[in-house]
Amino acid sequence: VQLVESGGGLVQSGGFLNLSCVASANMFSIYTMGWHRQAPGKQRELVATISSDGIANYADSVKGRFTISRDNAKNTVYLEMKSLTAEDTAVYYCHADAHILGDYWGRGTQVTVSS
């Protein structure tokens, strides 16, 4: 399974960005998909997940600002991010939990929020 993220970039504080992750997987619809991020000098942390039936969970730090969604017909998971702050600056990674088939990571996309 290959995961390819896109949509990162530089944005001003208070702005928004939309990330996408396309998976090359025949069974995408059964995977739990997620976004994680890693800021410089910090451990990678969970941002949001979405189950195969569309149930979303969020880290407390992004609740109300980020929205995760998926389009199974396009093998794509999205992360809409608004009201961005400098604390959201990180490399954002797409993750696929393919259950007994293993789990997979994308290479990441940089999000930089200028204050």
Structural overview:
The protein is built from no helices and eleven strands. It has 115 residues and is mainly beta. The strands form two sheets. Strands 2, 4, 5, 6, 9, 10 and 11 form a seven-stranded mixed beta sheet that branches. The termini are far apart. A hairpin with a 5-residue loop joins strand 5 (45-50) and strand 6.
Short description:
This protein is mainly beta and 115 residues long. Helix content is 0%, strand content 54%.
Strand content: over 45%
Give me the number of helical elements.
Answer: 0
Largest sheet report: 7 strands, mixed
Q: What is the chain-wise order of helices and strands?
A: EEEEEEEEEEE
Which blocks of ≥5 consecutive residues have pLDDT under 50?
none
Q: Outline, from the CA principal axes?
A: globular
The value of Rg in angstroms is 13 Å
Q: What portion of residues is helical?
A: under 10%
What is the first-to-last residue Cα distance?
36 Å
Counting DSSP E segments of at least 2 residues, the number of strands comes to: 11
The pLDDT mean sits at 96
Structural class: mainly beta
List the helices and strands and how they pair.
Elements: E1 2-6, E2 9-12, E3 17-24, E4 32-38, E5 45-50, E6 56-58, E7 66-71, E8 76-81, E9 90-97, E10 103-105, E11 109-114
Parallel strand pairs: 2-11
Antiparallel strand pairs: 1-3, 3-8, 4-5, 4-9, 5-6, 7-8, 9-10, 9-11
